[in-house]
Amino acid sequence: MILSALAVAGYRSLREFVAPLRQLNVVTGSNGSGKSSLYRALRLLAETAQGRVITSLAREGGLQSTLWAGPERISRAMQRGEHPVQGGGRTRPVSLRLGFAGDQFGYAIDLGLPPVGTPVPFLHDPEIKREVIWSGPVLRPSTILVDRRGPLVRARRDDGDWDVVSQQLSTFDSMMTQCADPRNTPEMLLLREEIRGWRFYDQLRTDAAAPARMPQIGTYTPVLGHDGADLAAAVQTIIEIGDGVALAESIADAFPGARVAVARSDAWFEVEMQQHGLLRPLKAAELSDGTLRYLLWIAALLTPRPPELLVLNEPETSLHPDLLPPLARLIARASAGAQVIVVSHAEPLIDALRQHPECQSIVLEKTLGETRVADGQGGHKPLARHLERGKFLAGNRRPQQADIDATGEQALHLLARNRRE
Ligand SMILES: Nc1ncnc2c1ncn2[C@@H]1O[C@H](COP(=O)(O)OP(=O)(O)O)[C@@H](O)[C@H]1O
Ligand SMILES: [Mg+2]
Question: Domain residues of the chain, as ranges?
C-alpha cells in the first residue's frame, strides 16, 4: 500500500500538520523547522502497531512535554505580529493525533489525558481516546471499518452493520495489538502487519567501536539491523539472493575502481574492500567513517526484502559531499521497491533526489512556532502533479487542493469529535 498523506496534530511544533506523500519523499527545512519532530511522529505512529505508543511517549518525557506548547488558537493579529502570542485557557481537551491515508486503508489515533478524578500515580499517563481504520483513500463516516472510542471497539460487517469487538479495551492498549483477528477484523490485521514492516534508519553507527567494524557470525540477513552489526551477512545475502549487480554498480558509482567482498572463516563474516591503488583489501575495521557508512546504506537500501515504507533520518551524516549524489541514486533505486521518506538537510542530496520524477519535496518552515509545509518552490510543483494523479478521490472528479487538505484534516478532526473527557 502506498501512503498518500500523513497527518499530525499537537505533537511538538506540528500543531496541525498535513503533508501529501508520493513514492519518494524528501523532507527538508532549516534548523528547528520540525524535521526531526516529523520523523519522530512517524515513528510514534509505527509504534502503535507494536503496542508501544504509550511507553514511547513516556520515554520522550511524557505526553505533556511532547504536546504543542503554543496557544490553542493563533489569531490573525498574532500572525501579523500586532498582538503578542498569548494562550487563553484550554477550551479543548489535550489531544495528540497521528494518522495516515493510503490507497487501501487509513488509520488515525487520538491520545489524551485521563479524566479528572483518576488516581494520582497515573494522572499523567496518556490514554488512547480514539482509533479509526477506514477503507480507501478518503475518510468518511461510510468508509470506517473499525472504530474505537475509549474501551469500545466496533467493526463493520460486510452487510454494513456493526459488531462489537471489545467493550473493555484498556486505555493504554491499541486496538491494533488487542483486537486484530483474521475473522472479525482482517483489515486491521493486514494493516498492523504492514505497519510493523515499516523500516526506520537513524544514526547508523560507524565510530571506532561500531559493531559494523567487527567480524560477526553470519546468518541469512535480508534486512540490515539498526546497529549495522550484521553488515557482512547482509552484503552476502544481497550477493546470494538479491541484486548483486546493483551492489557492484552502487559501489563502483561511489568508489570508482573499488570492489567489496565478504571474507568468511568458519561462521565468521567480515566485509573487505579492495580499493584502487592498494595492495591488499581493507577490513571493515580499517575503513573511514564515511566509507563504512556508505556500505551500510548500500546494505540497507538494496535489501532483498523491501518494506512497504522506508524512512531515513539524515542519511547524509558523516558522508563526504562527493558521496551524496551516489547516495541519492541509491535511494532512488530503493524507491522502486519501497515507498521512501528521507529527512535531510544536505543540499546536494536534496537536489539530486528532486531530479527523480517520482520525488515529492516537502519543505518545512516554522511560523509563530508552528511547522508548516512551505508553498512555492520545491513544495508546489510536485504537489500539483500529485493532484493530477488523483490519489485522494474515489470518483473521477478532478481533485482539488481542498480535497487533499480535507483527507488529512478530516483524519485529524474526526478523531477530535465526540470525545468524552
Ligand atoms: N512541545 C513543543 N511545542 C512547540 N514547539 C516545540 C515543542 N518541542 C519542541 N518544539 C520546537 O520544535 C522545533 C522543531 O524541532 P526539530 O524537529 O528538532 O527541528 P529540525 O529537526 O528541523 O531541526 C524546535 O524549534 C523546537 O523549539
Ligand atoms: Mg533535526
Answer: 3-10+36-197+391-416, 205-288
